[in-house]
């Protein structure tokens, strides 16, 4: 099946909506970083085991405390709330480097294959991670036993110069860059997600990574803001196909949770958004397996666990079957065996199908632009807030 990804009919109208959505997203953010938080200690660090490709590997996961995302436009993303406001509390490059050093003291001896380095923003944005700090971290990574370094960034911050710098320092070790495409649909990315990522910037970044023999980890959303569950299924399936056509076989699927102090939280509070049913996630995996059998998507399990997101609404079914359904999805992640999903059933699925049909016949009949416009009529902020 061929999809139309270029689905923006009125660019001028969409640009104005994006301006208002961005103003709102930035205006309601609230920092969760304590005023006395140490600037020389990371937000978190741990060793664990994760899937890398089709193998379980030992990982060291570090979340650095850095300035917030330079874009900070996405309607559902809580990460800017979990980063520093550099206007109120600036941080020096040596303090960022010290955070890294504090958990890499044993790098020469520690036996982990993958080093995952998150910043709650963009690793390649100089305003968030200064070049001198990146260089310092590259050098320690090269000295470690780890074979892979995974970082995250919006695609516009990837440049040839930064890839050359990484290659020159880490040598034959592998850099993996996680990039949130979120959706292959231009319209969905523009006003459901409100991301600055475009298909063009994503494809350019992917080509650049391949040129340097680096790897990409592409993220897709299941049910961006304003979408129905039916639309979410189609959007995710066609996005998996789009990545498959590009040569990206293993996308990471992130089912949307509702985090506080985000635009999505406003939608949820007004009853205009429900986190995706777990049945919706199952349907995405089933349909993508039939349509793109050589694609191997994996679902982010931590986004489905309430215990990992105490302040958020997470994707769910009913109280009886949610835990075992998430467990089945986790088993699917490990071996890609569809049998884990095919055997799932519960009486709440009838309620799901009924609600999905009702949603299709009501909200689903309203054009996406009109849904967003109606929301903005109520919540549009004055210009001074941007």
UniProtKB/TrEMBL annotation:
This is Elp3/MiaA/NifB-like radical SAM core domain-containing protein. Residues 59-287 form the Elp3/MiaA/NifB-like radical SAM core domain. It comes from Candidatus Collierbacteria bacterium GW2011_GWA2_46_26. InterPro entries: Elp3/MiaA/NifB-like_rSAM (IPR006638), RaSEA (IPR005909), rSAM_sf (IPR058240). One of its GO terms (molecular function) is catalytic activity. SMART domains: Elp3.
């Amino acid at each position: 099946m061929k999809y139309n990804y270029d689905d923006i009919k009125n660019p001028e109208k969409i640009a104005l909506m994006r301006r208002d959505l961005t103003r709102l997203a930035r205006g309601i953010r609230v920092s969760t970083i304590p005023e006395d938080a140490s600037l020389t200690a990371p937000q978190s660090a741990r060793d664990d085991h994760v899937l890398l490709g089709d193998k379980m590997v030992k990982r060291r996961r570090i979340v650095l405390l850095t300035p917030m995302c330079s874009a900070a436009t996405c309607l559902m993303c809580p990460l800017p709330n979990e980063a520093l406001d550099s206007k109120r509390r600036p941080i020096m490059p040596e303090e960022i480097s010290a955070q890294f050093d504090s958990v890499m003291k044993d790098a020469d001896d520690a036996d982990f294959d993958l080093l995952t380095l998150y910043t709650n923003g963009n690793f390649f944005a100089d305003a968030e991670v200064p070049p001198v700090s990146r260089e310092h971290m590259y050098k320690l990574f090269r000295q470690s036993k780890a074979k892979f370094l995974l970082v995250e960034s919006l695609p516009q911050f990837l440049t040839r110069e930064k890839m050359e710098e990484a290659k020159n320092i880490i040598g034959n070790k592998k850099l993996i860059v996680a990039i949130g495409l979120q959706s292959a649909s231009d319209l969905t990315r523009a006003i459901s997600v409100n991301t600055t990522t475009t298909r063009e910037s994503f494809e350019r970044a992917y080509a650049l990574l391949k040129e340097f023999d680096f790897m990409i980890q592409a993220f897709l959303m299941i049910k961006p803001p304003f979408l129905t569950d039916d639309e979410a299924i189609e959007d995710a399936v066609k996005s998996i196909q789009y990545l498959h056509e590009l040569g990206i076989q293993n996308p990471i699927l992130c089912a949307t949770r509702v985090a506080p102090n985000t635009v999505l939280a406003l939608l949820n509070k007004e009853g205009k958004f429900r986190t995706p049913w777990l049945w919706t996630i199952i349907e995405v995996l089933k349909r993508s397996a039939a349509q793109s059998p050589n694609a191997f998507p994996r679902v982010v399990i931590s986004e489905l666990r309430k215990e990992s997101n105490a302040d958020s609404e997470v994707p769910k079914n009913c109280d009886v079957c949610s835990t075992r359904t998430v467990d089945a999805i986790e088993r699917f992640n490990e071996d890609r065996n569809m049998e884990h999903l095919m055997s799932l059933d519960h009486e709440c699925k009838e309620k799901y199908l009924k609600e999905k049909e009702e949603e299709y016949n009501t909200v689903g009949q309203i054009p996406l632009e009109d849904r967003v416009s109606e929301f903005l009529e109520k919540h549009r902020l004055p210009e001074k807030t941007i």
